[in-house]
Amino acid sequence: MAYSFRIFLLIFGLFLSGCEAVEGPLRVELDLRRLNNSYALLQNGQQCDLTSACDMRIKGYLDTDSPLDAWPGSKPLATWTKVFEKDNDNIPIINKIVSRDVCRGDITRANLRLLVVDVDSLTKNDLIEQFECMVPVENVASGMARATWSTERACDATFNPARIRLNFRYRVFHITLDECGRPPAGATAKT
Ligand SMILES: [Ca+2]
Ligand SMILES: [Ca+2]
């Protein structure tokens, strides 16, 4: 009995350590790879355009304040920044890094929330998908030079998860308080 209780404590301890928050300052980076909407689908199941492929516009917000809150999270949609745009491409390569610094306090995860729409010249934009790309903040590297990228994974799609896919990879590393907030939140082209 005592032995199995010790095993229980060991497993419970491992569980707790897996949920431990990490103190800032640190930087969270997501590298958005490729959006695959090969069926040219809108959220309602219709096609983006009748005679051409989707005209993708993506705006987003890397939520480190309330990553588990319901959509749209801690920041109003109107304040989100543009991440990507491309006309007439259902499977665009995005290849952009979105980052955010956490200067003070601690954090267990971050959530890149993304809104994808199809732009039309004559009518209003149509909703394609809402994505949430969750990053666990654990095993944080001591600096950028030591930070390795995760394996590629998929963001969670809200409306058509079986038919639309967005891949990303991530890394998290400590920075100094001087570096924190520079570069500011938003998307940067990869160099
Ligand atoms: Ca089009
Ligand atoms: Ca269009």
Explain what the structure shows:
The chain is mainly beta and 191 residues long. The protein has a five-stranded antiparallel β-sheet, with no helix packed on it. It contains one helix and twelve strands. It has a single domain, classed as Immunoglobulin-like, CATH 2.60.40. The radius of gyration is 19 Å and the shape is globular. The structure holds calcium ion (2 copies). One calcium ion is lined by residues 49, 52-53, 55, 87-88.
Shape: globular
Could you say which small molecules are bound to this protein?
calcium ion
N-to-C order of helices and strands: HEEEEEEEEEEEE
**Rg measurement, Å:** 19 Å
Strand content: 35-45%
The CATH topology label is Immunoglobulin-like
Assign the structural class, choosing from mainly alpha, mainly beta, alpha/beta, alpha+beta, or little secondary structure: mainly beta
Number of structural domains? 1
Would you report the number of β strands? Answer: 12
- Terminal CA distance reads 58 Å
Low-confidence stretches: none
**pLDDT averaged over residues:** 90
CATH class: Mainly Beta
Largest sheet: 5 strands, antiparallel
Topology of this structure?
Blueprint: H1 2-18, E1 22-23, E2 26-36, E3 56-63, E4 81-86, E5 93-102, E6 106-107, E7 109-118, E8 126-136, E9 153-154, E10 156-157, E11 165-174, E12 186-189
Antiparallel strand pairs: 1-6, 2-5, 2-11, 3-4, 3-7, 5-12, 7-8, 8-10, 9-11
The structure holds calcium ion (2 copies).
Short description:
By secondary structure, the protein is mostly beta strands. It contains 1 helix and 12 strands, in the order αββββββββββββ. Helix content is 9%, strand content 41%.
